[in-house]
Amino acid sequence: MGEMILEARNITKYFHDPVEVKVLSEIGLKINKGEFATITGKSGCGKSTLLYILSTMDTDYNGELFIDGEPMKGKGEAELARVRNGKIGFVFQFHYLLNEFSVLDNVMLPGLKLNQYPPKEIAQRAMRKLDMLGIGQLAQRKASQLSGGEKQRVAIARAMINDPCIIMGDEPTGNLDKNNGEIVFNLFRRLADEFQQTLLIVTHDQNLPPVQTVLFRWKMGKLWIVARSCNNMPQIFIRKYFGNQFPFLTQH
Ligand SMILES: Nc1ncnc2c1ncn2[C@@H]1O[C@H](COP(=O)(O)OP(=O)(O)OP(=O)(O)O)[C@@H](O)[C@H]1O
Ligand SMILES: [Mg+2]
């Protein structure tokens, strides 16, 4: 097993308004460096709720969360913001790019906010990320002049700018057509393979391309680990080898 990047233990979450509802019940998961993990499940099962907790944006839960080996419990908002800015990259369903800004400026923004490098170096780093994602030639375009698929790739570059330990995405392909969705999933896979980038992507898309290395699925109110490949073997291998029924369904 590789180095653990994210671990959640017994995460339980209630919403109180208008009545008390338990949305997450003792959820646990572990993700190692360089793994490309996806969480799938029906609408309303609690995927986004869990992701907000795992990304430290929601602190109102019971259970334990470790990011890069560091416990998140008891940390104040300022410290959590530091963890979020430096260690977590986030890709949303809607790209949230600033339309009137250039692609390069959009990608640089979280780097300028973290203020770890001078702006010139942040610009160079941003260019490298855009090149890695095959969109370097779009750097000077305004975000408003891009296609949906291109915008989402820029959003991924922006999530990568501070070299996060983990990139999290809440349905990052939810607004894309099948072809662009596959392009994005294959890019994620490449980031994991070539750059050891750890990824956790939430989706309710049952037709996602089988490129992830760890697959979690929601069933009967619990999160199950359906498959975890050895040596980052892609899911397509696991499916060919074990068939689509995943005989080793185990609770994580
Ligand atoms: N602020 C809130 N107050 C009360 N209930 C909420 C709140 N936010 C979400 N819920 C409920 O919690 C459950 C889980 O919601 P969540 O958004 O996590 O689902 P999801 O799995 O992400 O669904 P989808 O695939 O549609 O995005 C749902 O039943 C939802 O109605
Ligand atoms: Mg959701």
Which SSEs are present, and which pair or pack?
Blueprint: E1 4-15, E2 21-32, E3 36-40, H1 47-54, E4 62-67, E5 70-71, H2 77-87, E6 88-91, H3 103-114, H4 119-132, H5 148-160, E7 166-170, H6 178-195, E8 198-203, E9 214-219, E10 222-228, H7 235-242, E11 250-251
Parallel strand pairs: 3-8, 3-9, 6-7, 7-8
Antiparallel strand pairs: 1-2, 1-4, 4-5, 9-10, 10-11
Helix pairs in contact: 3-4, 3-5, 5-6
Adenosine-5'-triphosphate (ATP) binds at residues 15, 17, 21, 23, 41, 43-49, 204.
What brief labels describe this structure?
alpha/beta; 7-stranded mixed sheet; binds magnesium ion; 252 residues; binds adenosine-5'-triphosphate; disordered C terminus; 7 helices; Rossmann fold; globular; 11 strands
Give a nutshell description of this structure.
It contains seven helices and eleven strands. With 252 residues, the chain is an alpha/beta fold. The chain is globular.
Q: What does the model show?
A:
The protein is α/β, with parallel strands linked by helices. It has a single domain, classed as P-loop containing nucleotide triphosphate hydrolases (Rossmann fold), CATH 3.40.50. 33% of the residues lie in helices and 27% in strands. The chain contains seven helices and eleven strands. It has helices spanning 47-54, 77-87, 103-114, 119-132, 148-160, 178-195, 235-242; strands spanning 4-15, 21-32, 36-40, 62-67, 70-71, 88-91, 166-170, 198-203, 214-219, 222-228, 250-251. The strands form two sheets. Strands 6-7-8-3-9-10-11 form a seven-stranded mixed beta sheet, sandwiched between helices. It has a four-stranded antiparallel beta sheet with strand order 2-1-4-5, with helices on one face. Helix 3 packs across helix 4. The protein is globular, with a radius of gyration of 18 Å. The protein starts with a strand and ends with a strand. Residues 244-252 have low confidence and may be disordered. Adenosine-5'-triphosphate binds at residues 15, 17, 21, 23, 41, 43-49, 204. Residues 47-48, 170 line the site of magnesium ion.
